Structures are given as C-alpha cells and as structure tokens.
C-alpha cells in the first residue's frame, strides 16, 4: 500500500538504439542546467557534491526483490536490480513499442506462447562476473515460490523461464494472451543465484546482511544502519551522483524537518499542503510538481451484515461527500477525484469524476434503505443507530484529515462516524484480519489495470481485497478486459468494467493527487517518472 492484464512480432520490437537516444537526450538536458564552475565529483568546489540524500517516511523490511512491497524498498531496489525490460511511463502494456531496454538488449517472439530474451553481454555483478540466463531463471523461480510469496507471484503463475544458453532466456506461457511481454518484464528484478542457491528459501527472510543484495543495476548497497539510514554507491566511477543516501523517519513532521534543516536534499512528495508554506519560505528549497500514480479511497468491509452491505447505503455515503473539495483541501491543488480505482497516470484515464455532493439524493437513499432520521436528526433503523468507524494509519496525516472531514460531512446526514488511528503495521494486520468497518487506503497503480484483480475481484480475497467485495458482473467484465488484445478495444472493455464498480460502490473513490517533490536548489533534476520517480536519476547533478 502506497502513501500500499498481444502477441508481438519480431518486426515490432524496439530497436536497441532507442534507449540510448532517450537517455542521452535527458542527460544533455540536465547538463544544460549546470552553470559554469559547477562542482565535479571529487572536487572541493562544494560539500557533498556527489551525494544525494533522500528523506523517506518509513523503512523497507527487506531489499531482496521477492520480499519488497513497500514503495521505498522498490525505489531503492530499482537502482540496484534490473528487469529484463521497462515499460515507458503512461504507455499501454499491450503496446510492444512501449518497452525500453533493460537487462535484455533485444527480444523476439518465438510463437504465440513464447518470448526469447538476449541479455546484454556487458551486464555484470559487482565483482565483474557476468549475469547469466541461469540468474534470470533462478529469479523467476524465486518469485513464483509459495514459500516466499512475492507480491507479484499470482501474475507469474502461468509462465516458465528456461535458459537456452548462458546469455539467452526463453519464457513460455500456458496460454496465448495479450500481456505476455508485460508479465515477462515488469514484475521480476534479477538477483544473483550464486549468493542464494545454497540457502533454503524458507530462511531467506531471516538473512539481514548486505552480501546477498547484489544486482546488475547502476548502484550497489554500501551500508544499512537499520532504523536510521541506507547508502548506495555508484558502480560507475563517472556517475555524477556517487552516493545515494536514504534517511528514514517515522512521521511526516520528522521527514519535513530533514529537508528544512538541510540534512536531506529530496522528498518524493510532501504529505498534503500542511507544511507547504514552510517549504516555500525556505530559501534552499523549491517545490517541483509532477504526476502521481496513486489513488486513494474509503473501502467498506462487506463480509458481515453491517448497514453498508446495502448498496443504497454505500451510494448515500458517497453522495453526501463533496469529494473534489475534500481532496483539494487535504491534498492540495491539482488533486483529482478518480472515476474508479485508477490514477490519472494510468492509460485508461479520461476525465475526473465530478465528486459533487447531493444531500437530497443521499437522504432519499437512506430513507429507502430504512435508515430514517429521528427528532434529533440522527438516523436509525429498528432502534439501532447508524454508526460507522473509519480506520486510518497513524503515518498518514492526509488520510487522518480526510477521515475527520468525512466524519463531519456524514454527521450532517445524521450518521455518527468515529475515527480509529493505529500504527501502520497494526493497520495492515487489521486489514488482513478483516477487523475494520471502513478504512482509507491508498494504492500505487501498476501500469497494467490487471492489478485490480487482487484489489476488487473475488479472486482477490486472499490478497488485497480486504473488504471481501464480490460481484460476478465485475469479475466477468474484468476477465473480458484482460483478454482483449487491441489497446483501443481494451480501453473500452476496461472502462465498462470500471463503470460496474462505480455503480456498485464497493469503495468511495476519493483522490488521485498531484505529487509535489521538495528539492534542494543544489539538485538539478530533469523529471520524475510517476511509476518510478527515480528512473531518470542518472541525469541528475548536484550544483555548488
């Protein structure tokens, strides 16, 4: 949870030169930002000119790729471990032209069930040993192992990786489907077989040393003082940023203070507008807006016999909220109300929802469901008051503020809402155990909407569908959308499925924010990618 679905022809595959052209263009753009006399790594022109310090809310539990689910762990891992290929931001995963090179320098279609990937000959582990197809196969098998239960394991259930020779991997699928290239490249980050093959997988989670965290990416893990900070070092001696340090903090105020004091240079996004004025007044900081791939919602627990198991009550609770105003007030200008469980960066996005309240409609829906307002204005049915609790994590001031605002709006309709705030691990535990009535959640989108299976279909009950929502119509529409091969037709199919969700209201879609990064003025950045915000880090520079 963040704050945490065509066969292609060989002729259609991206040429090797595309990635190099893309990177060089951005690197030149970053160099243009450098004034004459800007410091170079190793010079005395400025302090820490080759070091970037990032402030982060929370700390990853583990960095071995199959165990990573927090966004901070993903961000760190993306600089250490490589995928076979990378999907360009905002592009459809069904488009074979939308993929950049990664660990693979090229690939081709074998037949309707298979793809072949050729690894870059220069891809090496930190000691100079070549990355082989055996390492790739080993990584895929680890992600698929139920003993590790990687977050993406279900997406890899119907494929098998096989080494054809030391530099070539074939990936075969059980069935022909349109998103094979996505599944072969997006989920698995490759790590070194020689360091883990002799350790029983059941014991991997207990390994806390750094020796096993070797990847073929541009950085290596140098130090990790748990609870405080983690440092990466560049493997390329010419890298402008030789050292990347994450400073971990437990609450948003502590994160903000790291930026304001100059102890950190960069924050992925400020949590709501609460401290914006402080950042704006700080002469050494600037704010950089960029798109977000997060959507937030209030989810209902539908496993029992609570009033909101009646769709009329859920719709009434939604109609009572001025979602657009709430979203902007809590998360700042640029925040939109999504039409369903998607961010504005997903290729399916068309228009934001109006989010306008309709108090009369909300009252009529509650009356029809049997929840009448008494003389004191409070609603009840059969002598039972209409009450509802909202569960939020203590680490998110934005979600807490949203819950308080929702509480006030529902009170106008005669509904008593309470707020329960718990530490994030407890929040996760209570969701998994179904110990909540409603909760405010936030998910980081994947580029493929197929992740909605785990969040909102019946198959997702053991995964992320904590509210146990089930609708056969949506499940059927979801299955149809997943199997649609053409991007244009798939867009129509997905939007038809989203319309069913919106009508059934298993959740109230609250926001998709516009991120605002807090950046030290000494840091020259080119751009932030919504699905991987550090993706362009190789082109960044520290100024004197």
In short:
The protein is an alpha+beta fold.
Helical percent range? 25-40%
Tell me the structural class. alpha+beta
Which stretches are low in confidence, meaning pLDDT under 50 for 5 or more residues running? 4-45
Shape: globular
Which characteristics define this entry?
single chain; about 550 residues; alpha+beta; Dipeptide-binding Protein, domain 1; D-Maltodextrin-Binding Protein, domain 2; Dipeptide-binding Protein, domain 3; 3 domains; seven-stranded mixed sheet; five-stranded mixed sheet; 14 helices; 23 strands; globular
Structure overview:
The protein has 544 residues and is α+β, with helices and mostly antiparallel strands. It folds into 3 domains: 10-32 and 60-200, Alpha-Beta Complex (Dipeptide-binding Protein, domain 1), CATH 3.90.76; 226-290 and 517-542, D-Maltodextrin-Binding Protein, domain 2; 294-512, Dipeptide-binding Protein, Domain 3 (Dipeptide-binding Protein, domain 3), CATH 3.10.105.10. The protein contains 14 helices and 23 strands. It has helices at 17-31, 71-80, 133-144, 180-185, 252-260, 276-281, 311-319, 323-331, 359-368, 397-412, 424-433, 452-456, 472-482, 487-504, and strands at 51-57, 85-87, 99-101, 104-111, 114-119, 159-165, 168-173, 219-225, 229-234, 243-249, 266-267, 285-291, 294-300, 372-373, 379-381, 384-385, 387-393, 416-422, 438-444, 507-511, 514-520, 523-524, 541-542. The strands form 6 sheets. The protein has a 7-stranded mixed sheet, sandwiched between helices. Helix 7 runs antiparallel to helix 9 and helix 8 packs antiparallel against helix 10 (397-412). The longest helix has 18 residues, at 487-504.
